[in-house]
Structure formats: structure tokens, C-alpha cells
Specification:
The complex is a heterodimer of chains A (378) and B (303). Chain A is α+β, with helices and mostly antiparallel strands and 378 residues long. Chain A has 2 domains: 171 residues, P-loop containing nucleotide triphosphate hydrolases (Rossmann fold, 3-Layer(aba) Sandwich); 122 residues, Nucleic acid-binding proteins (OB fold (Dihydrolipoamide Acetyltransferase, E2P), Beta Barrel), CATH 2.40.50. Helices cover 24% and strands 34% of the residues of chain A. In chain A, strands 6-7-8-3-9-10 form a 6-stranded mixed beta sheet, sandwiched between helices. Chain A has a 5-stranded antiparallel beta sheet with strand order 13-12-11-14-20, with no helix packed on it. A 5-stranded antiparallel beta sheet of chain A has the order 15-19-16-17-18, with no helix packed on it. The longest helix of chain A has 18 residues. Chain A starts with a helix and ends with a strand. Chain B has 303 residues and is mostly helical. Chain B has one domain: Orthogonal Bundle (MetI-like fold), CATH 1.10.3720.10. The longest helix of chain B is centred in the first third of the chain and has 35 residues. The radius of gyration of chain B is 25 Å and the shape is globular. The chains are: A alpha+beta (378), B mainly alpha (303). Chains A and B meet through strand 6 and helix 3 of A and helix 9 and helix 10 of B.
Chain lengths: 378, 303
């Protein structure tokens, strides 16, 4: 665990215009009857990238993954893998392997034979299979369990077998469908880092489907946020969090306060007047022009909460403390403004016992700087 | 006190099925076994009395001394019985295999059918049970006889110009058994295939298996409990089958069920036919025990 940071590296092929995409979705649409699961979607993924497809259930992320695996055929559009059109290529001839959400371990085979399955299928010589299986089991720390059957393993161990099995064939791309969904929280966090280390160590391209934004943020180089079969934003976790492309993304990843208003002064050092008449100063309104309806979105941790209005506050609102959620490392305050809107503000609990702490029904000010928020036009 | 009652209660609950087995299985078996040790006689019933207490203790002892395994020895001396046993086993084994070959695709298709359609398909499999077994076997005579429906149909198509002789041959027996026992094969197979997780097949394909290989390596091994159950449910009753060989097989088909019937009703030799029945039971105990063990193992794997 200590060497964790050292294995990560600066990696941003998407910023390099000469980099060749490894996986390319070109205007891919998938319909099931009259339901459109994936809607005219284009996406590029680079070699050795850890790419996450994030979205609520039914957003089309699993369908997208299954199309890459060859289990579904696109209704229209094309999928390229390493420059090769994947149209009509069945799953058993694709250089990708998938780790299934249910793990799909073969119940009548031992851990060892499960891992060896794909290699045997490829006709690899026996000694080589044994060697590879041993290596895979060592990688996922399951050597003592080689002779067990899946039903004799715990959930975490099964997950590792599934991982070892899907990695055994050294696929160009590993597809992971909710890989950590069935694990409890502690185990999930541990496994996240192990997956990242593995991906780095083996130099593989990982495409992971998840509905857990924390999981996507922790593991992925880039995240695609999906809704109703479309990709809303593809960006690094930090970009997704700090510069969401729209209200859906802002709301889906973390929590956020949005103030609806209209632009009174565009460009840099812009001003936005919100519904209640309060004017906010904003460092940059982006492409919005005066008169546009926009949403100023500010993350709770970028709001300061205090009894008095801070003298240097660029933007400040006052209200009554309505709810307090104490989470240990931080506290989240819900402040009810006089017009009924509720604003979320969080504070790091860096002091153990705070005299004169804010409490329920206290009057309080929430303030934020001009560059704390992001202006969203949709 | 309450514990005592609950203990008696649980004993009683267990006692009911045991009592059932005792009264309706074990006691009749011993009656048959008893008769098999006796000798035929012109009497009512047509054998020398055994174990009876009507003649007092001395009569009981005398009767006991008369008991013998002579009938069993007789079974092995006369080639008729040995041949009938062997031919029954062969016919039952072959028809079990045929039923499996016909039933597996049916069960597979049902298990892969849309979930909304499955109850209907299940219903269609069970539907023949609503008509008497005897009538359905009689119906096959109408289909298979030289001037029957099948021959008329084939002649109409111009495939044959001479009627095929199917009725009163072993083929007719196979057709009858496969037809009659098909639901017993399909239902356990369907139960095994239906609960199988389809993602296992996808995983196998993902790891490089073409669909047919995936079937042999994953689907078939996982359906084995269903295969074993289906085969036992067909094989065991087929060995002792009497109606089908009698109606469809004609006089040339040798099966132990029919031999037993003839022995009982035409020769009125109750002791020998009882011995035939006891030996048949012993022959079948082996596959039944194997079946039980396979079932127990499957349950263990699941838990």
C-alpha cells in the first residue's frame, strides 16, 4: 500500500492531439424494441487508460460495455478496437475480457480450473497454463484457495477469482461491470486501490461501469457521465467535479448548490442576479451573454459558514440553520434562506471542540468567493 | 411439559410418512416376498400357505419348513426370465437415452423461451396427463398400424409404397416409451436449465468458447442433476413397463413386466411371479440408490 502513489503517473493521452485512440465508438445507437438504450454516442478511450462509465441504472452504460464485449450488436454506428472494426465479431474472438457483475464463476469448477478456462480454450500447453494460473492466483492472493469451489468462497474472494479469470488471457482491454458492487464498503475501498495497482502493473486498458461516483472518482483516469443513452461529459475526476458541463453532471457527482439567475454582466468579473434579487459576483461567466438564464453552481465545501457576515465576502447570503449532519471529519449545515431555499455548506472539523459552535435555529451567513462557483448554461 | 409435547409432536410428524411407507410399501413387499417363497397349489389363493397362524404353532413351524428359494433358482434356470430381465434393461436403457435426446432440446428451448411464454409451454408438457395413459397408448396403435395414420401419411407423401411394419415390433415399444415418459424427462431437465445463470454462458464465450463448446463445457455439466433425475424417472418405471410392450410390442417383445403378467394371470403361478417381482425390485434398487446419492450430493453442493 505504501508504494501506491509511486506506481501512478501523469497520464493524459486525451490532451495529446497526436495520440491514437484505442477504442472508438462512432455514432453508436442501440435500441431494444422502442427503447433507446444508447443514443448516437461517440467516445474515444486511449490505451492504458482506466476509463469509467458512470451513470444511474438504465442510463445505457452496461449496454455500452456489452457492445464492446460483443454481447450486444449496435443498431447503428461502429465500434473500433485498436483500429479494427468490431462489427460482427463474436465475443469469443474479441481481444477483450469481461468481469461480470455477478462474477459468473463456473460453479462446477474449482478456482484453479475457472482461472485456467480461457487458457485451455486457447489451446495453451499445460505447463504454461499451470504457470500462468499460479501467477494469476498469486496476483489476487488466492493461492491457498486454488482447489476450492466458488460456493466455498466469500464474496471478496469470488470477486478476486473473477478478476484473475478475466485477466488470465492478458486481454488488450478488460471490461468490468460494477466490479465492486457486491462487496461491503471497507472491502470495496481496499479493492479499488488494488484494481488501480493491477491496471498500472499490467499496463492494460480498463473500462469500468459503475453507478458509484466515489468509485469512479477514485479509480478512473477519465469518467464519462451518462444519462438516457447519451454521454454528458467526459473528463478527469477533478474536471468533472470542479467544472461540470451541466446541471445533471454537477448534481450527479457530489452535492452542489445551484442558484438560478440571469446574467447582468457577461465575461470575466461577471455578475449574476438570482431569483430573489441578490447579485453574485462571478470570476468568469464563460460563454453566457447578458440576459441569459444560467445556474451558478457552488460546492458545499466552497461555502463558508459564520455568525457574522465576513468583511471580505464577495458573495453572502443569510438564513437560519435548519439541519446539521455531523459526519466526523466534517459537518454539513443546511441553511434555510428567508425565501425558503436551502443551501448546503460543509466545514472541515479541524478543531476538536469548538466553543460557540453553530447550532440548530441559529442565524448564520454563508459566503463564497467569486471563483468558488461555476456558471452552467444548461 | 411444553417441551415434552413439542417432542411428541415432532415425533408424530416424522411418524406419519414412516407409517405410510410401512403400511403401503414395506408390508405389501413382505407379503409378496412371502408368497415368492411358497409353492403353487390348487387352492384359494393359489399357493401353499406360509406364515399363517391358522393351523396353530406346529402348523406354522411346518409351513416354515416348506418355504424355499426354489422359485428364485427356477428364475435363473429358465432362460426366459434371464432374457426377459436383460431385454427389459436394454429396452429401458435405450429408450431412456432416446427420451433424453428428444427431451433435452425441448427443455432447453423452454428454459430459453421468453419468461411470459414458459408457463404455457410447461402446461403443454403436462397436458397429456389429463388423458388416461391407456387411451394414449391405444391411440398409438391407430397411428402405427399398417393401415394407420403414419403409413397413410407417408404413402400420401409418396415416401413409401409398402406400409411400414412398426406396430408389434420393438420400435413401437421405443416410440411408446419415449412418448409416454417424455414429461418425466423434460420437467427435471427444465428445472435444472431454467435456474442456470445465463451470464455463465456469456462468461464462457467471453473466455473464447464458441457457443457449442460453451454448451458442452458449461450448460451440460450444470444440467447433470436434471439429466440424472430425468433418466432415473424414465428408466426405473420403463424396466417394469407392462402396458406399452403388451399393446404396441406384440408377442415378440420380451419384457419382464409382461412376463410377470403372463405368469400371474395365465399360469396362475403366484409364487414364481412374486419371485420375478422381488428380483425386479432388487435390480432397480441399485439405480434408485445411485439416484438418491446423486440428489443428496446436489443438495449439498447448493447449500
Amino acid at each position: 500500500m505504501a508504494s501506491l502513489g509511486s506506481t501512478r503517473r501523469t497520464f493524459a493521452p486525451w490532451a495529446d492531439p497526436t495520440a491514437k485512440p484505442y477504442i472508438r465508438f462512432e455514432n453508436v445507437t442501440k435500441r431494444f424494441g422502442d427503447f433507446t438504450a444508447v443514443d448516437d454516442l461517440s467516445l474515444t478511450i486511449y490505451e492504458r487508460e482506466f476509463f469509467a462509465l458512470l451513470g444511474a441504472s438504465g442510463c445505457g452504460k452496461t449496454t455500452l460495455l456489452r457492445m464492446l464485449g460483443g454481447f450486444e450488436q449496435p443498431t447503428s454506428g461502429r465500434i473500433f478496437l485498436d483500429g479494427q472494426d468490431m462489427k460482427g465479431i463474436p465475443p469469443y474472438r474479441r481481444p477483450v475480457n469481461m468481469m461480470f457483475q455477478s462474477y459468473a464463476l463456473f460453479p462446477h469448477m474449482t478456482v484453479e480450473t475457472n482461472v485456467a478456462f480461457g487458457l485451455k480454450q486457447d489451446g495453451m500447453p499445460k505447463p504454461q497454463i499451470a504457470e500462468r494460473v499460479a501467477r494469476m492466483l498469486k496476483l489476487v492472493k488466492l493461492e491457498p484457495f486454488a482447489k476450492r469451489k466458488p460456493h466455498q468462497l466469500s464474496g471478496g474472494q469470488r470477486q478476486r477469482v473473477a478478476l484473475a479469470r478475466s485477466l488470465a488471457k492478458r486481454p488488450k482491454v478488460l471490461l468490468l461491470d460494477e466490479p465492486l458492487g457486491a462487496l461491503d464498503k471497507k472491502l470495496r475501498e481496499e479493492t479499488q486501490f488494488e484494481l488501480m495497482d493491477l491496471q498500472c502493473e499490467l499496463g492494460l486498458t480498463f473500462v469500468v461501469v459503475t453507478h458509484d461516483q466515489e468509485e469512479a472518482m477514485t479509480m478512473a483516469d477519465r469518467i464519462a457521465i451518462m444519462d438516457k443513452g447519451k454521454v454528458l461529459q467526459v473528463a478527469t475526476p477533478a474536471e468533472v467535479y470542479e467544472a461540470p458541463s451541466c446541471r445533471f453532471v454537477a448534481d450527479f457527482v457530489g452535492s452542489i448548490n445551484t442558484f438560478e439567475g440571469s446574467v447582468t454582466k457577461a465575461g470575466s468579473a461577471a455578475r449574476i442576479r438570482d431569483r430573489s434579487g441578490a447579485e453574485f459576483s462571478v470570476a468568469d461567466a464563460g460563454a453566457a451573454v447578458a440576459g441569459d438564464t444560467v445556474w451558478l453552481a457552488v460546492r458545499p465545501e466552497k461555502l463558508r459558514i459564520s455568525r457574522e457576515r465576513p468583511a471580505d465576502a464577495e458573495n453572502a447570503l443569510d438564513g437560519e440553520i435548519w439541519d446539521i449532519a455531523y459526519l466526523g471529519d466534517m459537518t454539513v449545515y443546511n441553511v434555510k434562506l428567508d425565501d425558503g431555499r436551502v443551501v448546503k455548506a460543509s466545514t472541515i472539523n479541524s478543531i476538536r471542540r469548538l466553543e460557540d459552535a453553530l447550532t440548530w435555529h441559529d442565524r448564520a451567513w454563508v459566503s463564497f468567493s467569486a471563483d468558488a462557483g461555476v456558471v452552467l448554461t444548461r | 411439559m411444553a417441551r415434552l409435547f413439542s417432542m411428541i409432536g415432532s415425533r408424530l410428524v416424522i411418524a406419519v410418512p414412516y407409517l405410510w411407507l410401512l403400511v403401503f410399501f414395506l408390508v405389501p413387499f413382505f407379503i409378496v416376498f412371502k408368497i415368492s417363497l411358497s409353492q403353487t397349489a390348487i387352492a384359494m389363493p393359489p399357493y401353499l400357505p406360509v406364515f399363517g397362524l391358522e393351523e396353530g404353532v406346529s402348523g406354522f413351524v411346518r409351513n416354515l419348513r416348506d418355504l424355499s428359494f426354489e422359485n428364485y433358482l427356477w428364475l435363473f434356470e429358465d432362460a426366459l426370465y434371464v432374457n426377459a430381465y436383460l431385454s427389459s434393461l436394454v429396452i429401458a436403457a435405450v429408450s431412456t437415452l432416446l427420451t433424453l435426446l428428444v427431451g433435452y432440446p425441448i427443455a432447453y428451448g423452454m428454459a430459453r423461451a421468453p419468461a411470459a411464454l414458459r408457463p404455457l409451454l410447461l402446461m403443454l408438457v403436462i397436458l397429456p396427463f389429463w388423458t388416461s395413459f391407456l387411451i394414449r397408448v391405444y391411440a398409438w396403435i391407430g397411428i402405427l398400424k399398417p393401415e394407420g395414420l403414419l403409413n397413410q401419411f407417408l404413402a400420401f407423401l409418396g415416401i413409401i409404397d409398402q406400409p411400414l411394419v412398426i406396430l408389434n415390433t420393438t420400435s413401437a415399444v421405443y416410440i411408446g416409451i419415449v412418448y409416454s415418459y417424455l414429461p418425466f424427462m423434460v420437467l427435471p431437465l427444465y428445472a435444472a436449465l431454467e435456474k442456470m445463470d445465463y451470464s455463465l454462458i456469456e462468461a464462457a464465450q467471453d473466455l473464447g468458447c464458441p457457443p457449442l463448446t460453451a454448451f458442452w463445457k458449461i450448460t451440460f455439466p450444470l444440467s447433470l442433476p436434471g439429466v440424472v433425475a430425468g433418466c432415473m424417472l424414465v428408466f426405473i418405471p420403463a424396466v417394469g413397463e407392462f402396458v406399452i410392450p403388451d399393446l404396441l410390442g406384440g408377442s415378440r417383445t420380451l419384457m419382464i413386466g409382461k412376463t410377470l403378467w403372463d405368469e400371474f394371470f395365465f399360469n396362475r403361478d403366484w409364487p414364481v411371479s412374486s419371485a420375478v417381482a422381488v428380483v425386479l425390485l432388487l435390480i432397480l434398487v441399485v439405480p434408485i440408490a445411485y439416484f438418491q446419492r446423486a440428489q443428496a450430493r446436489a443438495r449439498e453442493e447448493e447449500s
